[in-house]
Design goal:
- The chain is α+β, with helices and mostly antiparallel strands.
- It has 2 domains: 183 residues, GAF domain (Beta-Lactamase); 208 residues, Hypothetical protein af1432, CATH 1.10.3210.
- It is built from 16 helices and 7 strands.
- Strands 1, 2, 3, 4, 5, 6 and 7 form a 7-stranded antiparallel β-sheet that branches.
- Helix 1 runs antiparallel to helix 2, helix 1 packs parallel to helix 6 and helix 7 crosses helix 15.
- The relative contact order is 0.10.
Length: 410
Amino acid sequence: MRRAASAKIKQILALDSELNKIQDLDILLERLLFEARKVTRADAGSIYIREGDKLVILYSQNDTMQKNLPPGRKLPFSSFKVPINTYTISGYAAATGEPLNIANVYEIPKDAPYSFNDAYDKQSGYHTRSSLTVPIKTNTGLVLGVLQISNALDAKGRAIPFATDDELLVSHFATNATVALQRAQATRAILLRMIRMAELRDPKETGAHVNRVAGYAVEIYERWANKRNQDSRVIERTKDNLRMAAMLHDVGKVAISDLILKAPRRFTPEEYEIMKTHSTHGARLFIDKQSDFDDMAQDVALTHHENWDGTGYPGQVDMTADISKGNPPDAPKMKEEQIPLFGRIVALADVYDALCSARVYKEAWTEDKVLEEMKTMKGTKFDPELLDIFFEVLPNIKSITSKYPDESHA
């Protein structure tokens, strides 16, 4: 028993340096939940982040339900908010700052202030038994979120209560993770400030939009990479960079005049030529490359409007040239695999979100119409393989859509 506990402690300590390398908030949260479940042999779990007086569920995992899906698919889930009070298990942990280790959620004493919501069990057919809920808090006691894992499994795969050692391990793990979490939240805040700068010029460039596009892009890439049996460590590093790079795909719009971007109508041909330079302006922000992220962010900003058949823009441009009046019309075109992979992925994610969203010149399209339109662009606008993958991960993409609604629909 002591050897097992010691091995788990070493495993958690070894994770600290890995977690501190993750820059994106969503990627970090997904990894935190996975590792907490792994070290306790928990079958399922969720992770919540505090927003004001509520907890927002950002990731949910369930190995039993995952096994029912085709290979490569990820379990979709719905995002929702839980008040921080003592009425729910997760709310209680956040409100009190204390962990809750419950042997059987269906046998919670009637005089307990909290209760178990069995709605998910009824809907899915899953049976939750044991539950361990731990607040994620700083060394000053500030609660940042809640880590909740369910159904510890014994050697035969049967659900059993979480041990006291599990409670101590996960609490220690959550405490160690706060530094990485605070840093990732600060990184996300910086990115969103850059997005808000772009939003001042282009009202369509909102935090919700870029989070959706980034989330879609990561889902498409992960499925693509798994089909090629890429190393899991490479996939994790790439997801981290891709999510941030995709959020900044249109940051070059800060260089475009308000008179163009905020015009309550379609662009004139002359305005459209100037607007198209935002891709080159955005790429120029990453010329002084310091990391793999800069390489990817430049590729995404520059090429997310390229088309598979070579009809997109800006083509193979000289980024040091004067493009104030438009991209050079004689720039060599980019087509097919000349277009960087991540530009092709973000192109697909961006178009899907644009079609699903209302614009000054159009209403949001119905889902059926959007998907039909996407299919018509296979092999012309979109990489055929990536479009097929898009449809494979569509349930996960829909989960991301609900996770980041526009403010008018929140």
